[in-house]
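input
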Amino acid sequence: MATELNRRSFMRGTLLSTAALAWSRPSRAQPQQPTAPAPSPAAEPAPAPGLPRGKIGPLEISRLLLGGNLLTHYTHSRDLRYVYRLAARYNTDEKILETLATAEAHGINTLVMHNPDHPMTLLRRYRRERGGKIQWIICPTAPVEPDLVKYRQAVKDLVKDGAEAIYLWGVTSDALVNQDRIDLLVKAVAIPKEFGVPSGVGAHSLDVVRACEQHDAQADFYIKTFHHHRYPTGPKPEELNAPYNEFPGYWCRDPEATAQFMESVQKPWIAFKVMAAGAIPPADAFQHAFRHGADFVLAGMFDFEIAEDVQIAQTTLAGLTERVRPWLA
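output
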């Protein structure tokens, strides 16, 4: 009896389940209700060849420049160590070449980065194999020593490769000023001019720009960090102990002092780290940089960010009404 009861219970449950399933599905004999079409992926904005430009010496440069850290896989990601590997896995050689082409297609005509061997090989490939025209502003990482032999050779090689401008790496210039070796800094700035290209100075510390101006270093342009501290992980006043720091993550120690001093500098200024390594949205970052005097913005961008960032830069520049510092480029 128990066996029969269990069998009956099973059959009853199965039939009820089958009926419920059939009721829930539309019958083939009955027309199905039309369903809303699946949303199509957002279309990428059209290329923007009208991105405004300025000049550094003879070079005509887009107001938005492509930063090289994402292409060299050097991402400032604070304590998120996996991001370095993630960027390296995403930005393969082919993806880097695609990114350069995407930047050019959207009106970005200049790249800024340091000179690791492999990424430099890709830049050469892009020009030779893909017909790329994007300009290079490169900072050699060779040491600046009293004889300047290694640094001069690095500059010579980069110009021979096709670099349109050279600048002194910010890490190097910060150290030279901290060591009170302004004399070496001035000599290093003069070397690219020997090879007929514009020469600039990169800096995280505002003291570098001050020293260059005081000692008439003859820099053609500056590449200086610039971002506000109004982001959730921004540094507290007591944490601002160095020109820049990965933890808590800031690269412009005193944005107010930077903006104020740059008003007196009569040379083109490329602002970099404007998004504080991704902590500040680009619309906010670009507005802050251009409004407070930057002539150009250098931004690290993955390929899928370029179209949107170019549109943001265009909108920002078109609507810019408050700017104390005159355009120097």
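quick obs: The chain has eleven helices and ten strands.
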